[in-house]
Structures are given as structure tokens and as C-alpha cells.
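Format notes (please read before filing issues)

Several people have asked whether sequences and C-alpha cells are stored in separate files. They are not. Every record keeps both together, in the order shown below: the sequence lines, then the C-alpha cell lines. Line labels are part of the format and must not be stripped during preprocessing.
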Amino acid sequence: MLLTLLREHLRPHRGLLAAVVVLQVLQTVASLYLPRLNADIIDRGVATGDTDHIWRVGGLMLVITLVQVVATIAAVWCGARVAMALGRDLRGAVFEHVLAFSKAEVGRFGAPSLITRGTNDVQQVQMLVLMTCTMIISAPILCVGGVVMALREDVWLSWLVVVAVPVLVLVMALIMVRLGPLFGQLQKRLDTVNRVLREQLTGLRVVRGFVREEAEQARFAQANEELTDVALRAGRLFAIVFPFVMLVMNLASAAVVWFGAGRVESGELQIGSLIAFLSYLVQILMGVMMTTFLAVMGPRAAVSAGRIGEVLQTAPSVHEPKAPAVPTESGRLEFRNVSFSYPGADRPVLDRVSFDVAPGRTTAVIGSTGSGKTTVVNLATRLADASAGSVLVDGLDVRSLGDADLRRRVGLVPQRPYLFAGTVASNLRFGRPDASEEELWAALRTAQAADFVEAMAGGLDAPIAQGGTNVSGGQRQRLSIARLLVQAPEVFVFDDAFSALDTATDARLRAALAEALPRAAVLVVAQRVSTIIRADEIVVLEAGRVVGRGTHTELLGTCPTYEEIVSSQLEVTA
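Then the structure lines:
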């Protein structure tokens, strides 16, 4: 999966990659050539007292060093550009793909895991590319070139290379085998920490309301401790790498001096060649050490790439048709023998549900908890697709409509309204960016939100925090309703969108909506009978089935389930 991701997302940056390879080869060749020149200065300049030769070869070394420095800087710049572009493209690909997910796919992965995969996992792959472009490309050239140049200096001493390199590679391989599984655990533990932290921040009021601070601190401490434990185990193994590399390098250097001194004394090897051989041995081991960076980062990046690939390879269960149909009708929503089942469920959530929402009429759906009300909303807005039957918008199955066309025709105020960081105006214009201020104020007046927006510092330009945390629950609901009114779809879907409003505001809002939307089709899913009492038709759900249809008055005498709901709420009110 790692190679697949890299091949696909590095293809647009082939030019920069080619430049990285050329520059890395250039700076590596320069690095390999410098010890030979240094040996030449010692043997033919210093040993013979030839000052002109020292200046001439020394000047050449300065030029080559300058070329090496420029090539190294340029290679790092190009490599960083490639790595950052890869990270940008991967994050964009994950984000775009996740936006196409239905609720089923989001629920399967979980929001914390998707966040980790789009951030930390992408960063691991990005860092691997950065290290590869800036260091690892030169490592094999350094190793092979170092061996060749070392053999040119003295073949007899090359047995030290034959001993040192395999020992280093063997120990590194043993360490990497143990690191791979730990990196997989590390990413999963990071998912858990993100999940626990996200739950605690989202449910902060619940935690405080039930005095569960200590319990939640303990839960986070456990998740944090598990992550720390895996990270420490990986860190301990990783900590062995560099001391061991330095140990092998120093022992090999000492061996070169020890065995090479005798050959210098006997005249079989010149002192400059001995120093050059020592430099090449260090370069060979440095190449192996740089390869260990790849060996260390490779397994973790491979695990992260697999997690990213799992997201990108998951086909959304709700997808746009290749040839979207164009409706001829306008403003009608219909459920026709609709059934829906979650994977692995014992029974369907909805079972052969049928009703319609016509233009100029309000249809309400009510039922006890678990009766399938939220599923009705998900199917009406195509956040999920029906397992059987059809959901029709303007006479066509929603699966045959383009996503943009469907969203333009069917608008939703969710049960838990969400406001984005920005201003009141930016949130209201979310569905129609070109809406005028007059249209925004008209929507606010209908949603019974104009008064508190006028009281806010800045009015339409008043800041809204992420999630709308700086306004109350009722204000969030009214701003969300106003946002939908600005969008002006043909079918309005309100998923328990009046639950946070007091009775008086609820009544004024419903009256204003009836006046502002005389020709719109309105679907209201509600818990409170008072919210739907004046609906043109009420659909009563019980265990996923329609057990009653009619007006409030008609259902009171014909539907025991509805009578039970009404009586329970009247008792609570009393």
C-alpha cells in the first residue's frame, strides 16, 4: 500500500524527484572524491614538501566542496517541496473521500480514527519521503561508491568492511522486525487517545453535571499510559540503533588504524591512502546508518499508509450516479415501501414505510425512541440509502439524482445543529454565499432569531465560535433554521429542530414558517406533540412500522400509540 500511495501521489512531482536524484548523486560523488584528493595532498604534497601541489589540489577540493554544499542545499529544498506537496495531496485526498462517506462509513471508522489518519498517518508518510529525498537516496551510492573507492586504496584492508557491514545490517534487521508491530499498536493507541479526548471535550457539560471528572481523568490517564508504554518500547529499541552504529564505526576505525599501521610501516600502504580508506569506511557505515533511518521509519510509514489506503479504498455506500436524472416535478418527497437495515442487525430499522410530503403541506413523523425517526431523516436527505423500496424527490429516486441537485432541493436542520467558526453572516450564507443582507435578516426574523442577533456586538458580523459554543442551544437551533431558510430548498426537513425552544418561541416560529413557506413541502420529525399538532398529516412509527396516519384529531381516536404519546406528554405537562 505504501508503494501504491507513493507511486500515485508522487507522479505529478516527477520533475522535482528527478532533480533530487541528480543533486544527491552529484553531492555523493563529490563526497566520495574528496578523500582521494586529501590522500593525494598528503602523499604527493605534504610527504614530499611540494607546496604548489598542496595549493593546486587544495583549491580543487574547495571547488568540489562548494559544489557539494550547493547540491546538498538544492537537494534538500527540492526534497522538502516534494514531501510537503505529498502531504498536502494526501490530506486533500483523505478529506475529499471522507466527505463522500455516508453515516455508515463514518461510523465504521469513527471520527477520531479518521482525524488521526488524515493528520498523523499522513505526517508519517510525509516524513518518510522527506528523509528519503534528503538522505536515503545518497545512502546506497555512498555505500557502493565507498566500497569501490576503498578497494582502490587497499584491497587487503577490505575484509574489515566485509565484517563490519553485515554485523551492522544483521542487528538493524533484528531491531526493525520488533519495531514494525509496535508502530501498528502506536497508531491504534493514538486513535484511542484522540477518541477519549474528543469525547471528554464534546461531553464536558455531562462530565461536570454527573461529577465524573475523576473518572474521566482516570480513563484518559489509562489511554495516555497505554500510548506512552508502546511509545517507550519503540523508543528503547530505537535508542539502541545509534549507539550500536557508533560502536561498530569506532571499532572498525580503530581496526583500520591498527592493521593499517603495519602496512604503512612496511611500505605496502601510504599514509594518505590509509587516511582515505578510513574516510571511505566511515562513509560506508554512514550510508548504512542513513539506511537505518529508512528501516526505522519505513515500517511506521507502511502501517500509516495502510490505514490511509483503507480509507481511500473504502467505496462510499452512497454514491452519485454517472448520469444524473433531471426531475420534472417540483417540491415533493415520497417514501414508497421503504425498508432499511443496518449491517448485521437482527431486524430492519424501517419496515415498508410509505408516506409523502406534498408542496404546501406539512407532514410530521413521531414515535418513541428507537422507532426509526432519525433513519427517516437520513434516507430523506440521502445520508444513507434504503435497503428496499424507494425514496423519491420530485418523482425520481434519490439514487438517480446528482448530489448537488438533491441538496438544492432537500434541506435539513439536524437534531444537533452545528455552526462553523466565523460570523453569523458566514454561517447563514453557508448554503447560498451570494445571499444579500436583506435576505439574511428576513430569514432571521422568520426563525425568531433577529432580536438576539441585533443584540450581539456586530450584528451579522458577530463572531461565532466553533460549534456555536458561544450561543445557547435554542439560539443555535434558530440560526440553523435561518440558514436553511436562506438556502430556500423545495423540501424542508426539520429533525427535532425545535426541541431547545420554549413553548412560546416554538409557537411563534411555526406560525412564521407557515407564513414564509406557503408552497414548500415540510417534513418535521419531532418528540413533542405540541410541535406537530397542526401538521396536515402525522405519521406514527412504532418499531420501524407505520402504525397510524392522519391529523392530530383523527389519530386520537384511531391510533393507540399516538394516544399513549399524547397522554404521557400531557401528564408530564400537568
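For reference, the curators noted about this record: The domain at 333-573 is CATH 3.40.50.300 (Rossmann fold). The longest helix spans residues 213-266.
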